[in-house]
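STRUCTURE REQUEST FORM
Protein name: KLLA0F04928p
Source organism: Kluyveromyces lactis
Requested output: structure tokens
Priority: standard
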Amino acid sequence: MSSNIIPPSEQTSSALIIGAGGVGVITAYSLYHCGLSEVSLVTRSDYDHVVEFGYKIDSCDYGEITNWRPHNVYKTVEDASSAEKFFDYIIITTKNIPDGPKDSTVHAILKPVIEANYKLNDEKVTNVVLIQNGIDIEKEVLEHFNPATYNLCLLSGVQLIASTKVGPGHIVQKGKDHVSFGSFDKDDDIAIGQAKKLVSIYHNEGHNTGVFDENVRKTRWNKLLYNAAINTTTALVGLDVPRCFEFSVEKKATEFEVFRPAMQEIVSIAASEDVSIDENLIEFFNDVTRNILYKPSMCVDLENGRLMELEIILGNPIRIAKANGVETPTLKLLYNLLILVQNKLKEQKKLIEFDEEILKLVV
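Status: completed
Returned output:
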């Protein structure tokens, strides 16, 4: 369905957002509010509700919004790919869980719409934009889609935001939206131009912030300081961040024996990849997070019985560290403990099976 269609003379792009959680809906609304693109959203579980009632959004950036719908709403990626529309920007805001079900991996989600775009116009650039956590997540896309074959530009988005879906079609955004868009290959001039155009159709002066990032991979490493240390720990212990600080030995152990050592290991891994992280960010993330009553995404996912973004937040940097000869004892401990928790979730979801007679995993 559609509403408030932008006049064709004013449209400069078409964007499809896949993933209608707190991040995806605000991303869609920001594009819509800017008014320079036709906005489509894959909303899956909330589809019937959104078609009938639209979204209710309580946003620190845009205020209270009721009955909002993007120009097009689709229940599945397959529905979007069958709509005979070319999407200039395919924006992924789903969780990135490569160790999850095969049909929910990023390349599996992208396949129908990338192939549909290619069939509609093989001369037009398709921009895949990954607004997800983690490091080196773009490599999965490159392994499955040849950019030359599909006329593909691979863009990366690093978003700082606190936005959550609290009920069907109801989004609460507490933290202001700041997104850095850039080319995965920082020397790809075409992709750089496409990233800059995306900024121009996303940024809403006085509301959100969209900026071009000439080294978005470095920005990903910066954000990984928080995710690899703090996000993971909260999931492991089931606590919000301030409690992680306050409940520790002498109110110091979590910070100085877990958070900071893990962050310092991320700094070392990044340095082994010729990426220099400003170590002042270690102070920043510790100081800011201790003063916000907030449960990070991995903690929330675990509480709700959802698989965590473990491999792209911890697995990938640890593998880079191993290849580059960097020691990561704190990160490895967090990773190996969380692997046990992740597999517990997988067993509950019947994704793996443990034979209690032979006491072995059954493939």
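Reviewer notes: The first strand starts at residue 13 and ends at 18. The first helix runs from residue 22 to 34.
Form closed.
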